[in-house]
Design brief:
With 340 residues, this protein is α+β, with helices and mostly antiparallel strands. Helix content is 16%, strand content 25%.
Length: 340
């Protein structure tokens, strides 16, 4: 049960130090000079328990009104119902730092004084746009390469218009004008089959054998099943993960319901669930062996091809149809093309 009381309740992650910032506190923290009237930011440091502020003041900004040997007094505004109270708290210097909230204002003041001094010497007035802040206007005109695919390259997202051609027959049907006959050499399996979610028990054993977690099978990048067999389209996992029964069902429903299976084929590129995942009750004693098998999973590495789709459909049709569903899975995926 969560502790409902306490001065430091709910601060396990709030006061935690940043990644790779643990260990000894830098000496520069103690060499900074604080004066009365300075504006400081309050940020609790979990390595120092003395002089730590209450979690309400974490992230607040205040003004120094008193300076001692190891701490400073800060005035912070706190809202209590309909009024704002100026609270006075004492915080050690490990939990504060100089605020940068006025740095932009001070830079603009220095620049304005410099421009006014130069204008006085030259005898020309200073343009108002150089002194006063102006709202950010619209972006300038630029060209977009229409041959780009809508993938992320070099940190920027490239977009292209998606072709959408329709053929309306008798005012009711709406199907893309693609042929229904698959080319020679492609699989004749139209719909994704249902996989076996519980593997068979080995013939020489009564129960399914116990296994460790084997998380190493999820680490790294896939080097074997990362290519397309039929050289058309597929769905690739960009991050590692574990595929359960509901993941197989959702992908199968997405492909079989959203795509016209008379014009394409689809095959699985991953094995059915085979790795057991155990579950132990809340009141069970820990360390007494593994619990009962709850479900089975399939480890997936990064760049692993999950399914392969193809036929007489275009890439734009598949991308428009499957894009809205790919972003709801627990590991990142994207539609893979033979040219990428």
């Amino acid at each position: 049960m969560t502790n409902p009381k306490g001065y430091r309740r709910g601060t396990r992650h709030l006061f935690a130090r940043d990644f790779k910032k643990n260990g000894r506190i830098p000496l520069a923290t103690y060499m900074k000079i604080y004066k009365r009237g300075d504006i400081v930011d309050i940020k609790g440091n979990g390595a120092v328990q003395k002089g730590m502020p209450h979690r309400y003041y974490h992230g607040k900004t205040g003004r120094v009104f008193n300076v001692t040997r190891h701490a400073v007094g800060i005035i912070v505004n706190k809202r209590v119902r309909h009024r704002i109270i100026a609270k006075r708290i004492n915080v050690r210097i490990e939990h504060i730092k100089h605020s940068k909230c006025r740095s932009d204002f001070l830079n603009r003041v220095k620049l304005s004084e410099k421009l006014k001094r130069a204008a006085k010497e030259s005898g020309k007035p200073v343009p108002l746009s150089s002194i006063k802040r102006q709202p950010q206007g619209p972006r300038k005109q630029h060209l977009i390469d229409m041959a780009c695919r809508p993938f992320i390259k070099n940190g920027s997202r490239l977009l292209r218009p998606i072709l959408y051609s329709r053929t309306i027959v008798n005012g009711t049907q709406d199907k893309p004008p693609f042929p229904k006959v698959l080319p020679v050499g492609l699989p004749l399996q139209n719909e994704l089959p249902e996989v076996q979610y519980v593997p068979d028990t080995p013939p020489n054993q009564q129960n399914y054998p116990n296994m460790s977690r084997r998380l190493l099978q999820c680490r790294g990048v896939e080097t074997v099943h990362d290519k397309l067999i039929h050289k058309q389209y597929g769905i690739m996992a960009l991050a590692p993960g574990l595929m359960k029964e509901n993941h197989f069902n959702s992908i199968r429903d997405m492909i079989n319901k959203r795509i016209d299976m008379e014009r394409c084929f689809s095959i699985w590129r991953v094995d059915p669930p085979w790795h057991p995942w155990y579950f132990k009750g809340l009141n069970k004693k820990r360390g007494a062996g593994k619990g009962s098998i709850d479900y089975f999973v399939t480890p997936i590495k990064a760049n692993r091809m999950i399914i392969e789709v193809g036929g007489t459909l275009s890439f734009d049709y598949l991308y428009r149809t499957l894009l809205t569903k790919l972003k709801f899975y627990h590991f990142q995926q994207y539609l893979f093309h033979k040219n990428y």
